[in-house]
Amino acid sequence: MRCEIRVEGHLSETLAEAFPELGRAVMSGQTVLFGPVTDEAHLYGLLARCQSLGLRVVEMRQLPE
User: Are 6 and 58 in contact (CB under 8 A)?
Assistant: First the structure.
């Protein structure tokens, strides 16, 4: 499955390196992280990483294959 996670603000290079498996794009004051997610455990791990880094998740959605 492919997912998109939108977080508030622009991620620094250091913060972006915490998500090496995901691509990223900056749009309208948000950073969009996107890419393949292997299973629910991987998804929850990504969301936990966001939380531990103090990132505010605005939206998370599954992308079409």
Answer: yes
Per-residue pLDDT tens digits for 32-54: 999 999 999 999 999 999 999 99
The letter for the amino acid at 19 is F
Taking the C-alpha atoms of residue 42 and residue 44, their distance in angstroms, rounded to an integer, is: 6
DSSP-assigned states of every residue in 1-59: -EEEEEEESPPPHHHHTT-TTSEEEEETTEEEEEEE--SHHHHHHHHHHHHHTT--EEE
Give the closest residue to 53 by CA, choosing from 22, 24, 19, 20.
19
pTM for the structure as a whole:
0.89
